[in-house]
Specification:
By secondary structure, this protein is α+β, with helices and mostly antiparallel strands. Helices cover about 45% and strands about 15% of the residues. It contains 24 helices and 15 strands. A hairpin with a 4-residue loop joins strand 13 and strand 14.
Amino acid sequence: MLRGMRKASSNWLGKIIMGTVMGVLIVSFGIWGIADIFRGFGQSTLAKVGHTEISTEQFRRIFTDRLQQLGRQFHRPISNEQARALGIDRQVLQQTIAETTLDEEARRLGLGQSNEETLKTILDDPAFKGANGAFDPVRFEGLIRQLGYSEQGFLAEQRRILLRRQIAGSVAAGYQPPNVQLEALAHFQNEQRSIEYLKLSAAQAGTIDPPSPEALASYFEERKTLFRAPEYRKVSYVAVTPAEIGKWEDVSDADAKKVFEERRETLGTPERREVEQIVFPNKDDATAARNRIASGTSFEDIAKERGLSQSDIDLGFITKSQMGDPAIADAAFSLQSGEVSQPAQGKFGFALVKVGKIEPGVAPTYEAYASQIKQDIASERARAKIGELRDKMEDERGGGASVAEAAKKLGLKAVTIDAVDRSGRMPNGQLADIPHGLDLVSQAFNSDVGVDNDPISYDGGYVWYDVLGITPSRERSLDEVKDQVEARWRADQISSRLRDKANEMVKKLDSGGKLAEEATQMGLKVETAASFKRDASLPGLNAGVVAAAFRTAKDSAGQTPDPAENGWIVFRVTDVTVPPVDLASDEMKKLKDNLQRAEVDELLAQYVTKLESEIGTSINESAFAQATGASSGN
């Protein structure tokens, strides 16, 4: 998971996604811009921004909350070690200081936000609205509880956020990207090219005679590091997770059927209905409208008279549980298709409800859900045992037992991997027997023989491990890897010959030659790729071809390697098209919004950095290390 997250955050899109996950208010605050000044710090103070102190415990809570948010996003707990490896600890510190800096500036400017204004913003937030489009108190309470806020705490935080937005809005007010810049970006993004090409493969390289012993030995000597044996580690581990110790076969049908009955309403497929609703301020108006419908006036005409569009009255194709108002839901699900209800009193007034298409639900059967329910029961029972087994394992480890010895005494299964490298592979090239998502290898390579390692949190449980032995990396002899060396030598020879052929063909094409004639001489077929952009993924072609095509002028030829096939590709650019730019189009408006957002973020980053310098920012690195688990004082 750690490798996956690092890979995901290595490009610009991944960084934006990771920034969003962490809830960064302003995307780009700059890496630092904070003076590391150490003066007058107590152990309880982690940082000071102007007159505001950020306590170690306060930051610890913020850091823990961020890790929990990321853990929910990636469906896997994130340890302090993983967070530090990804730089999340510094990002959270950077964000916390930036937010505190804006709070300080708000106080310095005397900005304020009334309770009424804050409440209005929350009531208008789409995240807190139910199926009927109105503010849903139950949804609101559930969401803020997931975020770890009380109602008052959330209101206070929203007030701070709104004040920060006031400052940010004043800084960026009126900024518009220039049209020249937009047009240049649009041309860059939308330019299209077409090429004709042919692929050179090993067949075009001709006969490659085997290397002489002297040539092979020389080749090996020059590239010894490529054939070096990696460091291997012998590792023993035991996993105590719900999946490992919870066996569904041990759950009786009687227990499973009891749970099935308790869950029956949430299983299967619930009935869905097309529902429309018109809300009236009082019962008399609703009754009068119902009488008119009974006399022949359509439901839709009543809605139009009240100034409502179809989107205003349409609740969608929904289940009963999705309707936020129980009284209206009861009325809607008691009707036949095409019927209109009598006035029903809901939370927001009296309503008439009309039902359209009805999709019957599918009743669940025990047989269909038995295995899943038994697995759930087994996992739940296992969770109750995990704490007990954790304590017993720690007691055994504290008494000097190895992981394997402790596991055997407690009736657990220990797995021993005789040799695994940093990539998770054994000497035979196969992946080692390690559960998916368990970051055991990197942990083992950060440990040593005889070290009493902390357990790894994994899949709702724990994994204990010992490093039993280390086989250092070493140089291999030619005899050990002769087949690999000869295969690589042959591949290099083929690639070199094809590169020379490709260069020769490009010279001919640029001198007036035809790609079709070159293809005929070699028994190859000319292929085409038409109207592709810079970000295109072309079937059968690697990304290097696209990049090379956009570096080559129209009617000119080019060449690029084909690593997947150990071949070479020769092409000619046959067409270059730059579509006209319509600044009023939806596409250009979206591009303008994205560019404006990015440049405003950069502008705000510079502003916050300047504020931090003016207000004064100090960091207690010792307290920071404790709060993030980087020191033993945590």
